[in-house]
Design a protein that fits this description.
By secondary structure, this protein is of the alpha/beta class. The protein contains 14 helices and 12 strands. The strands form 3 sheets. Strands 1-2-3-4-5-7-9-10 form an 8-stranded parallel β-barrel, surrounded by 5 helices. A two-stranded parallel sheet has the order 6-8. Strands 11-12 form a two-stranded antiparallel ribbon.
């Protein structure tokens, strides 16, 4: 079912796991002023009710955590580097050596256990200075800052890190401009032109970094990372079918730019119809032609679309209406394992380059009893999704690997809660910040260990 070299593993983000927000020269990031995730506007400065300030203390416990990942048999570990840990403001010429040494040690620990590191360069953690003093990605100067940051890491870890992702869920900037683009204004205060100019800057930065990666080491593999949300028509009416199609096209345009190296027609028309003209700097068109080696994506849910309005999904980050045929998680994310096969086939048919599922998982409230969690609901969710990955592979789709999201419990990005847990490993920390931070193996820990050992052979 799964190829012999399939990369099984898990994924975390620096801002949700590391903590140590003010240690060893680290600067502030936008996450440090988002104590309620995406639910409320940012604060002026960090507040102690922000669980992300201390995370799950991965900064001091990474050796213990990576050893647990190795016990499960991880082949790959996806993590992000906190930009403001390397360049505290984001605009410096010289990096913070203490920050680099921390990730030197994380990579060394992966190497010790035979785990391939996969690094996300920007995972919803733009340095706060770049957001507040520069206006985030609305400012063209961030392209150069990002190039300097990426070149620093790729030069430092040449030959040690082969898999790189540029922007996490890059298409989410069209819906969450502060979270995804460090733009310190509500979306309703941004013109479409300002928003898509910022998006263009991220496209150019991503392509520039892809070029840099291949120059530094031809063995580097660079992927874009998009948020995959299949959009089904709510009814078979042509109006609903078209509504679902064009909204999907706008999502997929973010992948088109990375894979094909130019703006797709549907996006050009959308911008022209809305009177938006993107400003290309000299050399932008040429830079965009430096395309990615693979497409990575997150998948949590599908949505429906209709031209006539409908009940919006409670947890849907990028729109959509409720699918009446599906059940949802406690946080309103509709559960659709077959949607993952749908997305894999859609992307493969469109781009014909390798795919990598780098986020998938179930956020749920877990109860620790006698040192473990009987999370059969999580096992069922992951089993059903992985069965569909196997079906897509049988369909002829090339899938490089699968990293489950939040392989160890961490602070939720959307709600900044600990109680929304994804991991195979329970972390004793509560929404009020209390807890010992002790780690416990859940029932799913041993299940996933067997999935990896059997290369998916135990899925049913």
């Amino acid at each position: 079912m799964f190829p012999k070299n399939f990369l099984w593993g898990g994924a975390i983000a620096a801002n949700q796991a590391e903590g140590a927000y003010d240690e060893d020269g680290k600067g502030l990031s936008i996450q440090d002023v988002m104590p309620r995730g995406i639910q409320t506007p940012p604060t002026e400065r960090p507040t102690e009710d922000n669980l992300k300030l201390h995370g799950i203390d991965f900064y001091h416990r990474y050796r213990e955590d990576i050893a647990l990942f190795a016990e499960m048999g991880f082949k790959v570990f996806r993590f992000s580097v906190a930009w403001s840990r390397i360049f505290p403001r984001g605009d410096e010429d010289r990096p913070n050596e203490a920050g680099l040494r921390f990730y030197d040690n994380v990579i060394a620990e992966c190497e010790k256990h035979g785990i391939e590191p996969m690094i996300t360069l920007s995972h919803y953690e733009t340095p706060l200075v770049l957001a507040r003093e520069y206006g985030g990605w609305t400012n063209r100067r961030l392209v150069g800052f990002f190039e300097n940051y990426a070149r620093t890491l790729m030069t430092r870890w040449r030959g040690r890190v082969r898999y790189w992702l540029t922007f996490n869920e890059i298409n989410s900037i069209a819906h969450q401009p502060f979270l995804s683009g460090g733009i310190p204004r509500p979306i309703e205060e941004l013109s479409l032109g300002e928003l898509y100019q910022a998006i263009h800057h991220e496209y150019v930065a991503s392509a520039a970094v892809t070029k840099i990666a291949h120059e530094i080491d031809p063995d580097n593999k660079v992927g874009c990372m998009i948020l995959a949300v299949p959009r089904y028509p709510l009814t078979p009416s042509p109006e609903d079918v078209r509504e679902a199609q064009w909204r999907s096209q706008l999502d997929i345009a973010f992948g088109d730019l990375h894979v094909r190296g130019e703006y797709p027609g549907v996006l050009r028309r959308y911008l022209a119809d809305n009177g938006v003209s993107i400003e290309f700097a000299d050399g932008d068109a040429e830079l965009l032609r430096h395309t990615v080696d693979f497409v990575s994506f997150s998948y949590y849910m599908s949505v429906c679309e209709t031209a006539s309005g409908g009940q919006r999904g409670e947890g849907n980050l990028i729109g959509g209406v409720v699918n009446p045929t599906l059940r949802a998680s406690e946080w309103g994310w509709q559960i659709d394992p077959k949607g993952l096969r749908y997305a894999l086939n859609e992307f493969w048919d469109r781009w014909q380059i390798p795919l990598f599922i780098v986020e998938n998982g179930l956020g749920a409230r877990d109860e620790l009893i006698d040192g473990t969690v009987e999370d059969d609901y999580r096992i069922a969710y992951l089993n059903d999704h992985l069965v569909q990955v196997g079906e897509a592979i049988a369909d002829g789709v090339t899938v490089l690997g699968y990293t489950s999201w939040g392989c160890i419990d961490l602070v939720s990005a959307s709600t900044a809660q600990m109680s929304k847990r994804y991991g195979f490993i329970y972390v004793d920390r509560n929404d009020d910040g209390s807890g010992s931070l002790k780690r416990y193996r859940k029932k799913s820990f041993d299940w996933y260990k067997e999935v990896i050992a059997s290369n998916g052979g135990n899925l049913s």
